[in-house]
Amino acid sequence: MEWILLAIAIGILLVAFATYGNTAARLRIIEQKLNALLSHHGVDPRQGPLLSDRVKQLAMDPGRKIEAIKVYREETGAGLAEAKEAIEAFARNKQ
User: Fold this and answer.
1) d(CA 53, CA 32)
2) Is the pTM of this model over 0.85?
3) Which uninterrupted H or E stretch holds 43?
4) Cβ distance 59 to 87 under 8 Å?
5) Cα end-to-end span (Å), the chain
6) How many CB atoms lie under 10 A from the CB of residue 69?
7) How large is the greatest C-alpha to C-alpha distance in the chain, in angstroms?
8) How far apart are CA 40 and CA 28, in angstroms?
9) What residues have CB less than 8 Å from 60, skipping those under 6 apart?
10) Rounded CA gap, 82 and 91, in Å?
11) What pLDDT digit, counting tens, does each position of 3-29 carry?
12) pLDDT digits (tens, 9 = 90+) for 30-62
């Protein structure tokens, strides 16, 4: 009885690993296609998130960084950490 349960557990693990490998490969292909589309439309896929002119203007003033993060979140629906990173990355690149 224990051997049967062990065999079933191993079978489930093998299926899970095979599915994960297939998913990772499909994700890489989708990412390559998305990068090709972005490049075709003149957007550098490595440049990071696109900021509106309003957000860029706010982000250039260190005293308005929090306001820039708020506006970015409103415009994109991004989370706090993602918005903070986008604004800080923009500020770093402008210096």
Assistant:
1) 28
2) no
3) none
4) yes
5) 67
6) 22
7) 69
8) 18
9) 91, 94
10) 14
11) 888 888 888 888 877 777 778 788 888
12) 888 888 887 787 766 666 667 899 999 999 999
Could you tell me if 80 and 65 are in contact, meaning their C-beta atoms sit under 8 angstroms apart? no
Q: Which tokens in the block code for residue 4?
A: 């049967």
Sign of the alpha-carbon torsion through 86, 87, 90, 92:
negative
Q: What are phi and psi of 87, to 5 degrees?
A: -70, -45
- DSSP label of 41: T
Report how far residue 43's alpha carbon sits from residue 36's, in angstroms, rounded to the nearest whole number: 10
Dihedral of the CA atoms 41, 57, 68, 93 (nearest 10)?
Answer: 60
Task: Give the Å distances, CA to CA, from 50 to 21, 47, 77, 86.
Answer: 31, 8, 13, 9
Contact 65, 24 (CB under 8 A): no
